[in-house]
Amino acid sequence: MTKIPGEKVVAGLSCGQVLERLSDYLDDELPAQERAHLEEHLRGCEGCARFGGDLAATVRALKAHLEADRLPGGFRERLRGALERGGS
């Protein structure tokens, strides 16, 4: 589990637990109850809400850019693979 200095526990989730689930949350891949707890944490934690909002905006911008531009064949698959491997 990720440990964040000064982290809070809101709605039964620590900031580190939210950080670990944020990508799944943004991709709408969390079960409804987990999603609700995460959203409750975000409403009660300004730091996580700010980080989550910034990350969401970045993801939206990247998706829009990738959808708008013509990319070389196989680029999306290579990018997805690299992201899943942690960028290596």
Order of helices and strands: EEHHHH
| CA-CA gap between termini | 21 Å
**Lateral arrangement of strands in the main beta sheet:** 1-2
Tell me the CATH topology: Arc Repressor Mutant, subunit A
* Gyration radius, rounded: 15 Å
CATH class assignment: Mainly Alpha
General shape = elongated
Poorly predicted ranges: none
Q: What's the number of domains? A: 1
Task: Indicate the topology.
Blueprint: E1 9-10, E2 13-14, H1 15-26, H2 32-44, H3 46-68, H4 75-84
Antiparallel strand pairs: 1-2
Verbal overview:
With 88 residues, the protein is mostly helical. It has a single domain, classed as Arc Repressor Mutant, subunit A, CATH 1.10.10. The protein has helices spanning 15-26, 32-44, 46-68, 75-84; strands spanning 9-10, 13-14. A two-stranded antiparallel ribbon has the order 1-2. A hairpin with a 2-residue loop joins strand 1 and strand 2.
Write a compact overview of the structure shown:
The chain is mainly alpha-helical and 88 residues long. The chain is 66% helix and 5% strand. The chain has a two-stranded antiparallel ribbon.
Question: What attributes characterize this protein structure?
Answer:
mainly alpha; Arc Repressor Mutant, subunit A; two-stranded antiparallel sheet; 4 helices; 5% strand; elongated
